[in-house]
Write a structure and sequence with these properties.
This protein has about 250 residues and is α/β, with parallel strands linked by helices. It is about 45% helix and about 15% strand. The chain has eleven helices and seven strands. A seven-stranded parallel β-sheet has the order 3-2-1-4-5-6-7, sandwiched between helices. Helix 2 links the parallel strand 2 and strand 3. Helix 1 runs parallel beside helix 2 and helix 1 crosses helix 10. It is globular, with a radius of gyration of 17 Å. The mean pLDDT is about 90.
Length: about 250
């Protein structure tokens, strides 16, 4: 029977690379995003390669939208096998300019957005006695602080607590919960001059990363696919840093 993987923020970047990886591995991929054109493009790339995929618009800040998507997938295909909580934002905001609204919006997307998608899927996962949940944290949530992105670092640190708590709660139901903390990865977010490193900053980062380069989205996608697989059957509650040696080598 074909397994189903639901991936949030799957239109671009790490989410898209993950969708392609799961599609190539034989999963039915539920591509979700607020970016309809990019999401449809990801589905086409998967299906053109012989895979199975469909697009659903999902705003992870909407409980109603998340509940509806999960219910429709379960009605069509049964329990979801893998959920990849990838949707996220990272807006540069100096602390003195940080409003409650800006802080709350980042948490609403980057942390609560994961909870909203996971919660409605748990009953069916428990009934199935299996499942894998993978949540995307960040090197800026597990090892570094990011100036002018305090809300992002705090939310991504919160993902670690979410993973640990859920892993403990769900282990006896046969559900494993893990996280991935990417380092510097070549995505639209990283290449944003306004909110992140930009192209020049990305090149400078590659010079001090021990492996000599910033990562590519599929460097992360392959680890996510591993965590979803039976090869990671005894692994839960962990947040794995995938950073080319950044954490151990930058000193």
């Amino acid at each position: 029977m074909m397994k189903t993987a639901l991936i949030t923020g799957a239109g671009i970047g790490i989410g898209r690379a993950s969708a392609l990886a799961f599609g190539a591995a034989g999963y039915r991929v539920i591509v979700t995003d607020i970016l309809a054109e990019e999401g449809a493009s990801a589905v086409k790339e998967i299906t053109d390669a012989g895979g199975t995929a469909e697009f659903h618009h999902l705003d992870v800040t909407s409980t109603e939208n998340a509940n509806q998507i999960v219910a429709s997938i379960e009605k069509a295909y049964g329990a979801i096998d893998t959920i990849v909580c990838n949707a996220g934002i990272a807006h540069k905001v100096p602390l003195e300019e940080m409003t409650d609204e800006k802080w709350d919006f980042t948490f609403d997307v980057d942390l609560k957005g994961m909870f909203r998608v996971i919660r409605p899927a748990l009953a069916q996962m428990k009934n199935a006695g299996s499942g894998s949940i993978i949540c995307l944290s960040s090197c800026m949530g597990v090892m570094y602080g990011w100036d002018e992105h305090v809300h992002y670092s705090a939310a991504k640190a919160g993902v670690v607590g979410l993973v640990r708590g859920l892993a403990n709660e769900l282990a006896r139901d046969g559900i494993k919960v893990n996280g991935v903390a990417p380092g510097y990865i070549r995505t639209a977010q990283l290449l944003s001059e306004k909110h992140s490193l930009g192209e020049e900053g990305a090149q400078k980062a590659g010079a001090f990363i021990p492996m000599g380069r910033i990562g590519q989205p599929d460097d992360i996608a392959d680890v996510i696919l591993f965590l979803a697989s039976d090869k990671a059957r005894y692994l839960t509650g962990q947040v794995i840093s995938v950073d080319g040696g950044l954490g151990v080598g930058r000193y």
